[in-house]
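Bit of a strange request maybe. I'm writing a small parser for structure token strings and I need a real example to test against, not something I typed by hand. Could someone generate the tokens for this chain?
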Amino acid sequence: METTIRPIQGTEEIDACARMMAGSEPWITLQRDFDASVQTLTSPGKEVYVAAGGEEILGFIVLNMQGGFIGYIQSIGVAPGWRSRGIGRRLVAYAEERIFREAPNVFICVSSFNPGAQRFYRSLGYEVIGELTDFIVRGHSEILLRKTIAPWREFKKRPV
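Reply from user aminoacidic:
Good idea to test on real output. This should exercise your parser:
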């Protein structure tokens, strides 16, 4: 099946991604329900992209490209039936390409209780740069990861 990555479109796609978030980890443990997931996906200033196979939404990624934390991947999710098939890897590659045009760093947080995601990001070249204890829910940390191509002083924006 041909998979495309493109900006999210319309309420049906937002709802599909919000159900994906609210119904799976790490969002269950982080206590993000459907309404909070919709709020994340529709938040002003965020860029949301979906991996689509025909009419089916296979996954999504939410980027923060404004303010003091440019280049932050806020959320990424893949539909249960499409996991371990390269969709997450493609979404992260798409996000990196987008971010590295404007910033030299990509940041992402991964929950301490999610070792599979930690391995995934390390396999993509991300390094641990910090830990935020009890950041979202008590008893769990968010581990801050970074992938970089240059220090800010050496970075030059690329043309679109």
